[in-house]
Amino acid sequence: MKRSPFALSLVAALFLGAAPAPAQVVGDPDVVQSFMQTYGLQVSRDIDKSGDPRLSSRIEGTNFKVYFYGCTKQICDSIQFSAGFDMTKPMSAWKINEWNRTKRFGKAYLDDEGDPYIEYDVNLDFDGCGGRNFDDTIDLWRVVLSEFKTFIDW
Fold this sequence. Notes:
single chain; two-stranded antiparallel sheet; alpha+beta; Yope Regulator, Chain: A; about 35% helix
């Protein structure tokens, strides 16, 4: 069978020109930490009181944690970004509910002292999350934190 040089070059071009698949962020704490560092964040790691991994970081002057859930053999099915703010006066439940009624991203609540917390959950089960999507997730978390700080007059 005679092969056409054009057909061979077309097939070669398809393989050579194919873009690499984007990296996936799976529920492996090492991978999540690496992606956060690639985003430019300093990240430290410890263990929470449930024995699961926990990351600590800072973005635009605000400390936050990343909690891991549903962990089996170092792979977790979801993560949660979380930040709390120690207020001089307790915030009202009405005020925090206003955030939850009017904002799509970031779930807010009050601790037992009336201090506000903001959380953002990310599902990493099965195939995880594409690298670009995870970068966008971190950027969205940055925006949510900024808006929340304004909302609570921080």
